[in-house]
């Protein structure tokens, strides 16, 4: 029987990063995992509220936790309080509120009082990233599903910030993460170590100063290329936008810069599992990965 | 030659306010500079993260609030995971921004973004920028 898990998509996975969602749902199915979208989920707020007096912005994540309680109550999931996030930013924001409420009963009470129309939340929920689910079921199980040989592909993991920092929310070792390269290994792909894999891309600065972000993009992508990578994987639609679309601005700044495709890790999983191309949505990737994949005989 | 800096009552109050808002014991910063060496945005900054910490200790309100640095910090928490005093500079930067933003100031003008750019930017970027840079 499929493992049914409450799943939080976040807004960008419904639009610009639709390919992240469709590829994830497809590979999860192959692994007998059913990601059940949270009914009536609301935006988590994108960034976590980090000043001491701003409890108001913890409400958006907290309301989503109540939705998980409701899913259990109505039997949509069976005694399953893990809430799976895919977007690194949603993961970080949800997880930080989750931990804050676990550690501060007074704040939890204030939030419950404010949400008096909702069911009381008593720290039942645990926020997890989909990568952690994969590690928990075991990368050897992932390996069993591989049907397509990707051994000619050289891919660099990119973690960015929000899967690893601050330490209390880290899904892996903050300074020396392995989870993405372990995944690539299990998929039969050669993981390339990029020294800039944890460097921040500049995040929301992309709105006010795209060239500041493009300089970081240049550093991060060039680091991967120098190490021998032909593509980079990420788990965040904002990292993806900054590393992918901002290669355009990076080329303006550094004319001899040559980019590489940026993929969601689940798109690579989909390729390995032989998921139909339509579900992987390569048309939404800014630097088209299909020429590379055709050159390697991975796509027709 | 030693230099004496007099800390006025206002400067001390400013320090206390930022300590309270950020929840960080800013006076425990030892000026080791590890944060500055770890910062991915340092090339875009006018004050290094360590300088911002020392200026906050001294309560130099105007220089801090007029700096480019507090608006450029991307809240990446790299300084936070490396600081030997476990200080969270992203929180300090957020506290400094909040002092400005709570006077009903916006640091980005969403209306000034061209329709083409608006169409291209993912929601996550816009929501995050509004959260960090508008009141
Ligand atoms: S963080 Fe986004 S992608 Fe996550 S729900 Fe909110 S603004 Fe959206
Ligand atoms: S968008 Fe940039 S800021 Fe975010 S996690 Fe990704 S790297 Fe960090
Ligand atoms: S790393 Fe910490 S102690 Fe060192 S200068 Fe920065 S804030 Fe101060
Ligand atoms: S949190 Fe801000 S100051 Fe600290 S390293 Fe990141 S960008 Fe620099």
UniProtKB/TrEMBL annotation, chain B:
<dbReference type="InterPro" id="IPR017896">
    <property type="entry name" value="4Fe4S_Fe-S-bd"/>
</dbReference>
<dbReference type="GO" id="GO:0051539">
    <property type="term" value="F:4 iron, 4 sulfur cluster binding"/>
</dbReference>
<keyword id="KW-0411">Iron-sulfur</keyword>
<dbReference type="InterPro" id="IPR017900">
    <property type="entry name" value="4Fe4S_Fe_S_CS"/>
</dbReference>
<keyword id="KW-0479">Metal-binding</keyword>
<keyword id="KW-0004">4Fe-4S</keyword>
<dbReference type="GO" id="GO:0016491">
    <property type="term" value="F:oxidoreductase activity"/>
</dbReference>
<dbReference type="InterPro" id="IPR009051">
    <property type="entry name" value="Helical_ferredxn"/>
</dbReference>
<feature type="domain" description="4Fe-4S ferredoxin-type">
    <location>
        <begin position="19"/>
        <end position="50"/>
    </location>
</feature>
<keyword id="KW-0408">Iron</keyword>
<dbReference type="GO" id="GO:0005886">
    <property type="term" value="C:plasma membrane"/>
</dbReference>
<protein>
    <submittedName>
        <fullName>Disulfide reductase</fullName>
    </submittedName>
</protein>
<dbReference type="InterPro" id="IPR051460">
    <property type="entry name" value="HdrC_iron-sulfur_subunit"/>
</dbReference>
<dbReference type="Pfam" id="PF13534">
    <property type="entry name" value="Fer4_17"/>
</dbReference>
<dbReference type="GO" id="GO:0046872">
    <property type="term" value="F:metal ion binding"/>
</dbReference>
<keyword id="KW-0560">Oxidoreductase</keyword>
């Amino acid at each position: 029987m499929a493992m049914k898990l409450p799943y939080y998509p976040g807004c960008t996975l419904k639009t610009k990063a639709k390919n992240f969602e469709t590829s994830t749902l497809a590979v999860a199915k192959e692994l007998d995992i059913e990601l059940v979208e949270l009914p009536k989920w609301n935006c988590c707020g994108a960034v976590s509220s980090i000043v001491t007096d701003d409890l108001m912005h913890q409400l958006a994540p907290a309301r989503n936790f109540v939705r998980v309680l409701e899913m259990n109550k109505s039997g949509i999931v069976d005694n399953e309080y893990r809430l799976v996030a895919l977007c690194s930013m949603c993961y970080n924001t949800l997880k930080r509120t989750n931990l804050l409420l676990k550690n501060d009963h007074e704040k939890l009470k204030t939030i419950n009082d404010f949400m008096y129309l909702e069911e009381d939340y008593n720290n039942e929920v645990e926020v997890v990233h989909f990568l952690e689910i994969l590690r928990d079921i075991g990368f050897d199980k992932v390996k069993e599903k591989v049907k397509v040989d990707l051994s000619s592909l050289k891919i660099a993991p990119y973690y960015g910030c929000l899967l690893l920092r601050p330490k209390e929310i880290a899904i892996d070792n903050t300074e020396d993460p392995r989870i993405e390269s372990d995944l690539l290994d299990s998929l039969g792909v050669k993981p390339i170590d990029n020294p800039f894999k944890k460097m921040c891309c500049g995040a929301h600065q992309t709105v006010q100063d795209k060239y500041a972000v493009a300089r970081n993009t240049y550093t991060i992508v060039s680091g991967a290329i120098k190490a021998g990578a032909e593509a980079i994987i990420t788990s965040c639609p904002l990292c993806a936008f900054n590393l992918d679309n901002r290669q355009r601005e990076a080329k303006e700044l550094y004319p001899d810069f040559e980019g590489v495709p940026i993929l969601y890790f689940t798109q690579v999983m989909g390729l390995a599992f032989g998921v139909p191309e339509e579900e992987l949505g390569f048309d939404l990737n800014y630097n088209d990965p299909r020429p590379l994949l055709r050159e390697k005989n991975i796509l027709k | 030659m030693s230099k004496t800096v007099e800390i006025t009552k206002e400067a001390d109050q400013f320090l206390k306010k930022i300590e309270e808002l950020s929840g960080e014991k800013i006076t425990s910063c030892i000026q080791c500079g590890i944060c500055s060496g770890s910062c991915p945005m340092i090339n875009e900054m006018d004050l290094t993260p360590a300088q911002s910490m020392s200026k906050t200790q001294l309560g130099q309100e105007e220089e801090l609030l007029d700096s480019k640095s507090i608006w450029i910090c991307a809240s990446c928490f790299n300084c936070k995971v490396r600081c030997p005093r476990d200080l969270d500079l992203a929180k300090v930067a957020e506290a400094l921004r909040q002092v400005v933003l709570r006077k009903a100031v916006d640091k980005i003008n969403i209306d000034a973004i061209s329709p083409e750019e608006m169409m291209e930017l993912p929601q996550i970027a816009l929501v995050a920028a509004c959260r960090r840079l508008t009141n």
